[in-house]
Amino acid sequence: MELKQPYLLFLGDAADALAAKVAQGIKTWRPEHCLGQLRLPECQADVGLQELSVSAAARAGAKTLVIGVANRGGVISPAWIEVLLEALEQGMDIAAGLHNKLTDIPELVAMAQKHGRNLFDVRYPTQSYPVANGKKRSGQRLLTVGTDCSVGKMYTSLAIEKEMAGRGMNVDFRATGQTGILITGSGVSADCVVSDFIAGAIETICPDNSAEHWDIVEGQGSLFHASFAGVTTGLIHGAQPDALVLCHEPTRQHMRGLPDYALPDLATCIEANLSTARLTNPAVQMIGVSVNTSALSEAEAMAYMDKVESDLGLPVVDPFRQGVARLVDRLLERV
């Protein structure tokens, strides 16, 4: 699945900034792919791009209208259909990461067929994947893993990719979730792949490469999350990582959505992820910890990270507050 750039970001009737987080993510991480934004009159979000109509965006060269809304239930609103039809008519593809499928809406399918356009439901695979073989692949890979879901694995991965690219390194971000795919234009949404083929799908998106090349693979779920540990395991085995970064949110009282499950101890979590990863790469190393300290004050955050760093003997950063340069330094220093 590969999306054509540049994008027109459709914010629709988003009720607030959080509802437009997908569009904001694309604008933050791939501003060069964004021509402008299109908002309906009721929209309460703004990602700070030029306001463009469908026709103006088409004249400017937009190739894909990306639905940048993550609304309740992941639905395609009837209020959007007129805009989506116009985009297809004007020569754009449409991409969305919602639970509702673009391809389940007959009028969109008919218009796409009429004008030779594509409808990308990036949450859902469009190809068949092989069963993983676990064979050693050339090139190098870093995978982000987590103590829980939604602790900053995608943000950390993109920050590492940006830092490495800024140093002139040969690097690619490999998206494994719908938002990452919409940000970068390609990837596979691991949580929608049949379980037997998750590792194989990840092998497919980060194949053999040159010795100096790094794939930064976006992590999903957690080995300690009863709902999603299976996705995490398949992803770890398929990524065959040379390096891991552990992501953590320190104020969680329990696993996300599972009040009966406590968060794991960091050292225990590190060893579990290393043990799992050694199946396909016995030489894997944990090179650092990325902490989401947004719920802490500056002083609290620094004190917490200093303690974790002292306890684990690994560099600990908050990528939003400090960047990830120290993680990349450690990556390059590893034996």
Mean pLDDT: 95
Measured between the Cα atoms of the first and last residue, the distance is: 36 Å
Count of discrete structural domains: 2
> What's the architecture of the largest domain, going by CATH?
3-Layer(aba) Sandwich
Q: Any idea what the shape is?
A: globular
Task: Give the low-pLDDT segments.
Answer: none
Got a strand count?
A: 11
Q: What is the ordering of alpha helices and beta strands?
A: EHEHEHEHEEHEHHEHEHEHEH
- What share of residues is helical? 25-40%
User: What is the CATH top level name of the largest domain?
Assistant: Alpha Beta
Number of helices: 11
Q: How many strands, what sense, and barrel or not for the largest sheet?
A: 6 strands, parallel
Structural class by SSE content: alpha/beta
In CATH terms, the superfamily of the largest domain is P-loop containing nucleotide triphosphate hydrolases
What's the gyration radius in Å?
Answer: 20 Å
Q: Predict the CATH topology of the largest domain.
A: Rossmann fold
Strands across the major sheet, in which order?
Answer: 7-8-6-9-10-11
